[in-house]
Design brief:
By secondary structure, the protein is of the alpha+beta class. It has three helices and nine strands.
Length: 230
């Protein structure tokens, strides 16, 4: 559309809008102007000053309440972050990784040990309801387990009622390899404050709403492993 025609249309609309406002609110605006410009006595100005002071006081109170509310919100957020850091402090000392096996290492049935999963609990307290699962990953970051687990503890997993402080290892059987697959450890546990955690194969630590046994609905009896110190 031609720019000149657009300017003409915009001007016409503006005139109509102003005319409508004057038609609707003209009498009220006229009365307000008359009231403002009318001569006032000293008493009126004194009362006006009192009203202005009262309005300023109300405004100051509103601003103070807004600042207090904002500061309270910031303080609550700071407390929430600090509580999260406090909860994570113990869990962050529980780590896991993969190490190569020594030559000649075998399972009791004679199967060679391909790798070891290493779990280190650097806390002075034990962790419990622990499941150490062998897993693989093909890209980073890891979003979740690559090998999906069910309601039973599988051959490449280890269930511990309690895992004391220290460093522990769990052997892995061969046969897991595949195109671009990298070995890793999925570690689920409950700390001594009864918070539940999942550490992914890339080391990411996430808090869980319930322990791994309830989350996976694991049935019993299951083989509960005895940890091997490393």
């Amino acid at each position: 559309m031609d720019k000149r025609l657009l300017r003409v249309r915009a001007g016409a609309i503006s005139v109509l809008v102003v005319a409508g406002i004057l038609l609707l609110f003209g009498p009220l605006l006229g009365k307000a102007w008359t009231w403002v410009t009318r001569a006032r006595g000293a008493d009126w100005w004194g009362a006006a000053g009192q009203w202005a002071g009262a309005a300023g006081t109300v405004a100051a109170v509103v601003v103070a309440l807004w600042i207090a509310r904002r500061d309270g919100r910031i303080a609550r957020e700071d407390r929430r972050r600090q509580e999260l850091r406090d909860r994570q402090e113990q869990a962050s000392r529980v780590t896991a990784w993969i190490e190569a096996s020594e030559d000649g290492a075998t399972f009791p049935d004679g199967t060679p040990v391909d790798l070891y999963m290493i779990v280190a609990n650097g806390n002075p307290e034990a962790i419990n309801n622990v499941i150490v699962s062998f897993d693989i990953f093909k890209s980073l970051p890891v979003r979740g387990p690559y090998i999906q687990r069910g309601d039973s503890v599988e051959r490449d997993e280890y269930l511990y009622a309690v895992l004391p402080p220290g460093k522990w290892r769990m052997p892995v059987r061969p046969g897991w390899g595949g195109m671009s697959a990298q070995p890793g450890v999925m570690l689920a546990f409950t700390d001594s404050t009864n918070c539940h955690w999942l550490r992914l194969t890339d080391g990411t630590l996430t808090e869980q709403s319930e322990n791994v046994i309830k989350r996976r609905e694991i049935w019993f009896p299951q083989g509960i492993s005895v940890p091997e110190s490393y």
